[in-house]
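Sat 14:20. Reprocessing the chain from the morning session after the first attempt stalled halfway. Input below, unchanged.
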Amino acid sequence: MKFFIDTANVDEIKQAQAWGILDGVTTNPSLIAREGIEHKKRVMEIISVVGDIPVSAECIETDVDKLMKEARDIASWAPNIYVKVPMNANSMEVVKELSPQGINFNVTLIFSLPQALIAAKAGASFISFFVGRIDDMGSLEAPLNVVEAVNMVETYEFPKDPEILVASIRSPLQVTESIKAGAHIATIPYKTMEMLFHHPLTDIGIKKFYEDYLKATGGKSA
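Finished this time. Tokens:
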């Protein structure tokens, strides 16, 4: 499973890159607004850091004609940009029109299998299931939805061979569930990504090894 980082913070992206686990970046208007910087400028800064791995940048227009124009503009910024649009009828019209022209789309705010099928048929490259928000509602259907979506894209033929991207991740447990479900990609906030390195027994073991080493060397560190 590929690891994307869900952030618009360049320092967080650089750290994930230094860990050697970064396969892509997803952003959205809320994340970029938090950074207090113009949308295109921040996206281009991210691309200058990560090179040619996928970077998702999101549209904000809702009218079909305006959304069509905005999607074309965002896609023109760099060849590795994936234009993010929400799951709705207008967005799918845009995806259907522009996907055959070489524009890659990340269709977001997916919560059901029929929505995933519609996005795949329209020509999406990434289909973003929001598992965290489903879990927030107390539902247990998120992992099953992901399993069924993965089976769907592997069973049928679609224009872009779409990948199932698990988004809205809140915890390491949801990452584990995504791996078990066979998701192709998980996009993870920086703090959650940091947590993946830890396990209580790992942390205890590291502390114990260090304490034993200090005892054996008379308290001298290496």
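The radius of gyration is 20 Å.
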